[in-house]
Backbone:
């Protein structure tokens, strides 16, 4: 592997790490913050028999492509972080506009173990639509 490739991967990993560290600092996303209703929503979800481990601030989606590259940026030039297979259920943190993929400019930021972008062209949302980033 070339030095340039290693450097690109290190930069992408660093950017994702910074994003992951900064994300809980967003107002209203801290479940332990005074006045936060996250715990109340979680309790309501449990009482209604919904998935106890699903954060109500996340949306869900299903991969529709046979294999989908999840990337470090919302475009085809972003480093591939991992691959998702058809039928895989993913957690969507938010959506943004990026490179158009077959006429669809929306990309989803996924939170399944790694922070990576997937084209909305190949992810069908389940339930509520993702919020904007």
Residues:
């Amino acid at each position: 592997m070339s030095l340039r490739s290693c450097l690109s991967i290190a930069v992408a990993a660093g950017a994702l790490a910074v994003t992951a560290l900064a994300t809980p600092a967003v107002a209203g996303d801290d479940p332990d913050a005074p006045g936060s209703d996250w715990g109340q929503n979680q309790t309501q979800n449990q009482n209604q028999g919904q998935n106890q481990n699903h954060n109500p601030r996340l949306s869900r989606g299903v991969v529709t492509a046979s294999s989908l590259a999840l990337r470090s940026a919302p475009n085809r030039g972003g480093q591939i972080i991992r691959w998702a297979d058809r039928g895989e259920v993913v957690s969507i943190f938010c959506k943004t506009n990026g490179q158009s993929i077959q006429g669809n400019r929306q990309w989803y930021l996924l939170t399944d173990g790694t922070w990576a972008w997937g084209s909305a062209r190949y992810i069908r949302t389940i339930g509520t639509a993702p919020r904007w980033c």
About this structure: Residues 3-22 form the longest helix (20 residues). The radius of gyration is 16 Å. The chain has one domain: 3-126. The chain has two helices and seven strands.
